[in-house]
Amino acid sequence: MRQHARAQAFAQAGSHLEAAQVWEVLALYDPGNARYRNAWRDAERMAKHEASSQLGKARRARAEGNEQQAVRRYLLALANDPARGDAADGLRELERTRNRRYFLGRSTRVTIGRPDDYLTEPPPPPKAKAIEPAPVAPEPVADDQVETVADSGALEHAALLTRDGAFTEALALLTRYFTAHPDDEQAGRQLTETWEAFGDKSLRNGRLRAALRAYERARSYAKEGADKLGAKIDALRKSLGDTS
């Protein structure tokens, strides 16, 4: 009965994929119940239809220059059908466009197309008390630029980019978002974890210096797990012959 109520609530809220998953559970509870199987198929069909609808709205919003709305629609499309590669591609392309616009003409400390320099610049001195934009980001952004990136889907978008290995875009997005929202603990944790994941990837690829810088950057944001990061940093410094 509880599962039945959940399925109906998801359907009424327009969360068709979640409703399909609950109907699937009900069909497993009662395999002979044709109503459950039919509801499951209907919910899956509606989820795919909703994903297509949201994708179309995302493309229209982007064509109209409304990037925040486009991001939201792309995410809604993926929420209803995670297999929609065109929605994921649209998100990635939109973020690349926004990054190019953001970095173009900025300080030469940031070089577009040079992820090693961009992601491995040393962190600020530990004595700094205020949260400053990380070296991956240029000078503080203007208010209109902050509004462009500080939307409700920023963290979800960054997680998608990280999952696909697009660390440059993910870290740029997270850093800008966290600069605008320094009290957002979830953003801080995600930024820490993404830097650490980039460090792990660099380490696997034999790029020890890049891994060291990434771990140092992760520790500068970490509120938890700093000891684990410290152990990684110490081990890498010894490997590099850097005991400072």
Model description:
Helix content is 72%, strand content 0%. The chain has 244 residues and is mainly alpha-helical. It folds into two domains: 1-83, Serine Threonine Protein Phosphatase 5, Tetratricopeptide repeat, CATH 1.25.40; 108-244, no CATH class. Helix 3 packs antiparallel against helix 4 and helix 11 packs antiparallel against helix 12. It is globular and about 70 Å long.
**Helix share of residues?**
over 70%
Radius of gyration using CA atoms only: 22 Å
Shape: globular
Number of helices: 12
Described by strand count, sense and barrel closure, the largest sheet is: none
| Strand segment count | 0
Give the distance, in angstroms, between the N- and C-terminal Cα atoms. Answer: 63 Å
Provide a concise account of the structure shown.
The chain has 244 residues and is mainly alpha-helical. Helices cover 72% and strands 0% of the residues.
Element layout with pairings:
Elements (H helix, E strand, L loop, with lengths): L1 H12 L2 H14 L4 H30 L3 H14 L4 H19 L11 H6 L22 H7 L4 H10 L3 H14 L4 H20 L3 H14 L4 H15 L4
